[in-house]
């Protein structure tokens, strides 16, 4: 055990059991998986991506490139989870990745022996030839060899939520700068959201032994958090990563609500995706320590020196008893001092030739080797020793590396700004940020505690003021500016693999090779080597890689430049973005007012856009859906049936200029329609193609009710609003969707008038009083107000009755009691195909009114949308595909292609396709509607119907596209 | 993205639907076909300020003429088409 006897922020009273690769261990509440593994002396936690090299824990938090594990089991298994951010919980089960058969013995580690073929650009070079091998051999091979974790195959059992929030000031990061910024903004009276990715806010204040105003830094953080929690308008979001800065102050964040629990409690989501709209934002994400590339710098036991301090001070874990600290700056000496204080034996290997006396004094218990460099490491699955460039060998079980700090300025670049290299700081600092965002603290290159506090406080005050909440500057407590001297040291050249990007196994040699092969641009070198393209987005590797590329190409880092940052900052589970909108809840389900009634009558339902519609009503003894549909359709032809048509779009158009607007949007004449009458109408798009069809009922000179197809209801309303507001703003007219305000039933069949008469005793319904295409407002027996339309989709004598939704079931009961047969959408389709009415298959956005036999409806007396462009030569070409009917002896299917009999089945001979097809119980044959080239002249001939997809090939007779009552006598009867 | 609706105030772009470039004025009914062709098909694609039509479809249902900078997404203003 390497747990220290005292200290740390763990709860020693609460012991938690967990397992790693099946071995049981214990840790304490407050541990991460990484700190608990280190406390148990476990250093080897994974195998690397390409070479399967043994890897351990490098970092302390989200920057971790190495220690990726599979967390949990079964449906909750989550691959590529950083052990450094996974909070320990009772029963946690974790597994290592990318090893076979076991972590300690991995047969693919021989990849390391074939290093040269896996170098930069290996995907491009090795697997080039032959091309046919790619899909079958190379890709599966690469995927099996390179794949990290395994995704679960079961459905995610957990729930996710979406949240939306607004604030004056969003503070990203709760380290010293973020806490000071949030406090300054909150005291100014601003609405503040403080988001921090850690379970416990505080950032480096929890990891370092520093003082603020005489208090341990962690205690000061706790004090500030307590004050912030007292503000009504301050929201603290721990375990929350702001992953993207989007337009106009919109930020995306993900809150890990229950990731630290075995399973989310009932009613609690696993994660919550936030959209935060902030007037101002302060980016205080801190900085992350960068590695130095030298041979064997990836061996388990080689760690970030600042992370070592974090394990010592926050988790009371001593990661090694014999430590070498390899540093290029003053910061590494603090790790040496903390290691000494924890009882380790320490050697400092300092790249600089001299350090300030006070710094050396603070680590006086350590052996100090100045002007030296680590050249390599020794050991098997874990570090055993360190070799210096002068050949000196030092036994060691921990090598703490301090290469300097990289500001975490990623979000400042999400709008495309590239950071600027600062030669004094030896770091990239933000040069610009998205509008409304300020960068503060270490993220802005302020590398000491006092500077971070002052910078954060000033940024918070300014942000609040710009958001309309001026306030007073914070009286900051005293804190120290710790020494932060640094020399540039990115790479110690030598023999052996010196890793730059641990997660993608990119070495210093790979970058040099890319430069030699001409990939000198930073963007090209990145893609060629895959540097910085892993899930950590090169958090630890980018700057080191750039420095090596700069050296290899003889340029400065500033001249070499850097790649762009893009959202997301850390990987985000799709579930957190989808929230509850998955499966059945992907979008709202629309049910008609008659849904429950139809279900009670044994209906089955079909999705029609967002709607569920009754497709047929099975009756005892029926052997399948065709029996039901045939019976329902024949009931309408021979007797009477009724169908729920509530889903048709209904739009009320009201006002003195209502007719003028409708004359613009309908291709046929509307102004001449008399009150109390209905007209079938066709709308074109401005490009001349048919947009939608429906009916237009005029209840009064200034009041119309339009129906649209179910599919186009929303689009037609939008189209009308466009025509009014954009094209004819001077018209006085109002538009209102009333689709949900009226339940509507179609009553059709020879006996329809008799059944309707029972609902409207004393009302004259004869052809004189209420002829075909009439409408009226009526009151049904019992006092229910209704709208009555005499119109027919089936070709039979038919009425549509609109009633308030609450009255729909009672109406259906009365129709059923009167002997009418309920029918569903399948029978509705059969009836309309028999009658030759166009539907979805024909209104496909590529047909003109002429194609559909509706050419005579286009008015010659007025302007209307689509009129001019419907005259384009291609739209009036006599060779166009036009609507015809088909009669066949065998099965016809929509989508089948039409060919001249005997012609080869090739695209060049394609004459059109079947748009709708069904069995006609009325005719006792298969019938279809089709779009056929020069179709009018082919009527009476035979055509080949070819369906290569489903394997049909038959012949059909081309007929007029109407199979029943061509004269229209039935509907007028 | 956010759009300042003149009726509803500052709203998320998710509440709006757009048809892209604001079309030029609709030609007279008897205009030559070339003019109709230009009206239907020809649009500028500027790197900079771009006039677009957006409908506040999840709000007041008004069609708005929005001036948006295609390089930065900065919205210079939005006014109702009917005004
Ligand atoms: Zn609005």
Automatic annotation (TrEMBL), chain A:
Q: Which residues form the Aminomethyltransferase C-terminal domain?
A: 883-965
Name the InterPro entries for this protein: 2Fe-2S-bd_N, BFD-like_2Fe2S-bd_dom_sf, FAD/NAD-bd_sf, FAD/NAD-binding_dom, GcvT/YgfZ/DmdA, GcvT/YgfZ_C, GcvT_C, GCVT_N
Keywords, comma-separated and alphabetical: Oxidoreductase
The UniProt record lists the keyword Oxidoreductase: yes
Q: Which domain of life is it from?
A: Bacteria
Annotated ranges, domain GCVT N-terminal: 594-861
Domain SoxA A3 stretches: 496-579
**All copies of domain FAD/NAD(P)-binding, residue ranges:** 168-408
Q: Which Gene3D superfamilies match?
A: 2Fe-2S iron-sulphur cluster binding domain, sarcosine oxidase, alpha subunit, N-terminal domain, BFD-like [2Fe-2S]-binding domain, FAD/NAD(P)-binding domain, Probable tRNA modification gtpase trme, domain 1
Q: Which family does it belong to?
A: Belongs to the GcvT family.
Protein name according to UniProt = Sarcosine oxidase subunit alpha family protein
Q: Which organism is it from?
A: Falsiroseomonas selenitidurans
From TrEMBL, chain B:
Superkingdom of origin organism: Bacteria
Gene3D superfamilies (alphabetical): Folate-binding superfamily
**Which Pfam family is one of those matched by this entry?**
SoxD
Which protein, by its recorded name, is this? Answer: Sarcosine oxidase subunit delta
Native organism is Falsiroseomonas selenitidurans
- Specify the taxonomic lineage: Bacteria, Pseudomonadati, Pseudomonadota, Alphaproteobacteria, Acetobacterales
């Amino acid at each position: 055990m390497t747990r220290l006897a005292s200290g740390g922020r763990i709860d020693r009273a609460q012991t938690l059991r967990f397992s790693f690769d099946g071995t049981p261990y214990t840790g304490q509440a407050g541990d991460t998986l990484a700190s608990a593994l280190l406390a148990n002396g476990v250093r080897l936690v994974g195998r690397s991506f390409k070479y399967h090299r043994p890897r351990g824990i490098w970092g302390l938090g989200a920057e971790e490139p190495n220690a990726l594990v599979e967390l949990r089991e079964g449906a909750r298994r989550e691959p590529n989870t950083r052990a450094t951010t996974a909070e320990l919980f009772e029963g946690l089960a974790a597994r290592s990745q990318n090893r076979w058969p076991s972590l300690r013995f991995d047969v693919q580690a021989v990849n390391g022996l074939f290093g040269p073929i896996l170098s930069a650009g290996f995907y491009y070079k090795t697997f080039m030839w032959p091309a046919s091998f790619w899909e079958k051999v190379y890709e599966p091979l690469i995927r099996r060899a390179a794949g990290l974790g395994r995704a679960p195959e079961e459905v995610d059992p957990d729930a996710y939520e979406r949240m939306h929030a607004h604030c004056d000031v969003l503070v990203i990061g709760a380290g010293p700068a973020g806490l000071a910024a949030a406090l300054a903004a909150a005291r100014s009276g601003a609405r503040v959201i403080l988001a921090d990715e850690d379970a416990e806010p505080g950032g480096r204040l929890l990891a370092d032994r520093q003082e603020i105003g005489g208090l341990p830094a962690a205690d000061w953080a706790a004090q500030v958090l307590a004050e912030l929690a007292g503000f009504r308008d301050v929201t603290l979001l721990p375990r929350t990563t702001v992953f993207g800065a989007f337009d106009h102050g919109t930020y995306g964040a993900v809150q890990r609500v229950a990731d630290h629990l075995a399973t989310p409690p009932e009613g609690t989501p696993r994660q919550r995706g936030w959209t935060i709209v902030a007037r101002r934002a302060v980016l205080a994400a801190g900085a992350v320590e960068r590695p130095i590339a030298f041979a064997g710098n990836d061996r388990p036991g080689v760690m970030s020196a600042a992370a070592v301090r974090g394990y010592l001070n926050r988790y009371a874990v001593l990661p090694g008893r014999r430590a070498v600290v390899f540093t290029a700056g003053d910061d590494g000496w603090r790790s040496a001092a903390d290691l000494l204080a924890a009882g380790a034996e320490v050697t400092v290997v300092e790249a600089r030739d001299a350090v300030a006396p006070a710094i050396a004094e603070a680590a006086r218990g350590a052996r100090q080797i100045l002007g030296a460099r680590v050249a390599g490491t020794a050991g098997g699955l874990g570090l055993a020793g360190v070799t210096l460039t002068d050949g000196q060998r030092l036994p060691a079980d921990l090598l703490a590396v301090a290469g300097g700090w990289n500001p975490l300025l990623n979000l400042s670049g999400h709008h495309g700004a590239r950071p600027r290299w600062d030669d004094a700081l030896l770091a990239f600092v933000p040069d610009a940020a998205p509008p409304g965002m300020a960068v503060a603290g270490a993220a802005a290159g302020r590398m000491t505690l006092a500077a971070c506090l002052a910078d954060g406080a000033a940024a918070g005050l300014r942000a609040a003021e710009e958001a309309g909440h001026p306030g007073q500057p914070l009286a900051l407590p005293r804190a120290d500016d710790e020494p932060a001297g640094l020399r540039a040291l990115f790479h110690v050249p030598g023999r052996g693999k010196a890793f730059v990007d641990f997660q993608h196994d990119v070495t210093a040699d790979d970058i040099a090779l890319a430069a030699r092969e001409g990939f000198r641009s930073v963007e090209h070198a990145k893609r060629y080597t895959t540097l910085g393209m892993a899930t950590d987005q090169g958090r630890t590797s980018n700057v080191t890689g750039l420095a090596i590329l700069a050296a290899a190409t003889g340029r400065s880092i500033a001249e070499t430049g850097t790649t762009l940052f893009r959202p997301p900052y850390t990987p985000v589970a799709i579930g957190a973005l989808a929230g509850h909108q998955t499966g059945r809840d992907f979008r709202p389900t629309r049910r008609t007012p008659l849904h429950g009634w139809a279900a009670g009558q044994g209906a089955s339902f079909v999705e029609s856009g967002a709607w569920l519609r009754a497709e047929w009503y099975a009756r005892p003894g029926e052997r399948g859906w065709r029996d039901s549909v045939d019976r329902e359709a024949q009931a309408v032809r021979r007797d009477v049936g009724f169908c729920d048509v509530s889903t048709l779009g209904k739009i009320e158009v009201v006002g003195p200029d209502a007719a003028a607007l409708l004359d613009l949007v309908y291709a046929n004449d509307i102004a001449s329609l008399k009150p109390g009458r209905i007209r079938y109408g066709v709308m074109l798009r401005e490009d001349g193609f048919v947009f939608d069809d429906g009916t237009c009922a005029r209840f009064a000179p200034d009041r119309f009710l339009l129906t649209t197809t179910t599919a186009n209801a929303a689009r037609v309303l939008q189209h009308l609003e466009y025509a009014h507001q954009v094209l004819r703003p001077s018209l006085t007219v109002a538009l209102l969707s009333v689709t949900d305000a009226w339940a509507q039933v179609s009553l059709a069949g020879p006996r329809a008038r008799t059944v309707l008469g029972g609902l409207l005793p004393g009302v004259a319904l004869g052809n004189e009083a209420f002829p075909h295409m009439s409408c009226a407002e009526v009151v049904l027996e019992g006092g229910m107000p209704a709208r009555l339309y005499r119109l027919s989709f089936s070709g039979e004598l038919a009425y549509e009755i609109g009633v308030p939704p609450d009255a729909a079931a009672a109406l259906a009961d009365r129709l059923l009691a009167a002997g009418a047969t309920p029918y569903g959408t399948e029978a509705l389709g059969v009836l309309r195909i028999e009658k030759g009415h166009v539907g979805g298959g024909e209104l496909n956005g590529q047909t003109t009114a002429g194609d559909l036999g509706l050419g005579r409806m286009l008015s010659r007396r007025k302007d209307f949308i689509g009129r001019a462009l419907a005259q384009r030569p291609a739209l009036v070409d006599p060779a166009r595909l036009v609507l015809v009917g088909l009669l066949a002896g065998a099965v016809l299917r929509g989508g089948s292609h039409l060919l001249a009999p005997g012609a080869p089945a090739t695209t060049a001979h394609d004459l059109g396709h079947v748009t709708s097809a069904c069995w006609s119980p009325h005719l006792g044959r298969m019938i279809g509607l089709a779009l056929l080239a020069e179709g009018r002249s082919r009527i009476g001939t035979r055509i080949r119907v070819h369906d290569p997809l489903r394997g049909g090939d038959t012949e059909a007779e081309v007929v007029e596209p109407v199979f029943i009552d061509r004269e229209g006598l039935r509907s007028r009867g | 993205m956010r759009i300042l609706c003149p009726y509803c105030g500052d709203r998320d772009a998710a509440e709006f639907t757009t048809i892209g470039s604001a079309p030029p004025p609709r030609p007279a009914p008897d205009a030559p076909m070339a003019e109709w062709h230009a009206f239907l098909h020809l649009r500028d694609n500027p790197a900079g300020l771009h006039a677009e039509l957006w409908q506040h479809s999840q709000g007041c249902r008004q069609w708005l003429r929005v001036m948006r900078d295609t390089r930065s997404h900065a919205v210079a203003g939005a006014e109702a088409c009917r005004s």
